[in-house]
Description:
The protein is of the alpha/beta class. It has helices spanning 89-96, 115-119, 121-135, 150-161, 216-227, and strands at 16-19, 24-29, 43-48, 58-61, 79-81, 99-102, 110-113, 142-146, 164-168, 178-185, 188-195, 204-212, 231-240, 254-261. It has 5 helices and 14 strands. A 6-stranded mixed β-sheet has the order 5-14-13-12-8-9, sandwiched between helices. The chain has a two-stranded antiparallel sheet with strand order 1-4. The radius of gyration is 18 Å and the shape is globular. The two termini are 27 Å apart.
Amino acid sequence: MYALSQAQPSPLKIHEAKIVSSLRTAISLKSDFFSPNTAAAAVTTTARRRSSTSDPQIYVRSSGGATLPERRRLSGAAMATSNVDGTDDRIARIASTIRVIPDFPKPGIMFQDITTLLLDHKAFKDTIDLFVERYKDQNISVIAGIEARGFIFGPPIALAIGAKFVPMRKPKKLPGEVISEEYSLEYGTDTMEMHVGAVQPGERAVIVDDLIATGGTLNAAIRLLGRVGVTVVECACVIELKELKGREKLGDKALFVLVSEET
């Protein structure tokens, strides 16, 4: 049975969640934002133990955030490549700009913040370049972006490879006629929508998001595109939280990621 560690009057809608251990990590940030040269030194970590019965830690993906247990914190020093040559220095630069915000947006959540990556022009460009290099010669006609951070990375990839960008949104966000896909969460269900006519049968698509946790939203996007006859070539994410085993939810669909926590 799953439960949030603290009740709130107006609970945040949770997209993906899973209870894990009670060992929490407090991270103290020495500056509000990382700079390219000080990113690795900007985070210090302190572990503190709390009662396992009163303070469970949770994995949560809520509007792009996700938690990790203490032993699997994401930081520049704790990242390893998943699909990219580990000798490519662009990966280390990208990893070093991703910061972890503790207890946001709720206590117990270790939020994986990519806004600091976006502040670093070189790291942001490296991120887009790596995706473009992979997909430019694969006859991709659709880049489907998952709300909301897929809207950041998807459009520049689409422009660079000559594909169209298709937003995949939460309910009642798209103004035209939509096709919907409902999917299960640990705390209920949610729905993903796409405009009718945005894609055509036989097109080849890549689904883009910032992070894969348990894989529920990506799996819903795969099913939604499949229903209208689109071939999903691959899912592409900047970050993978391997311990949540989101890849397993994608079935036979490939997943391409730039950085992931070390195992």
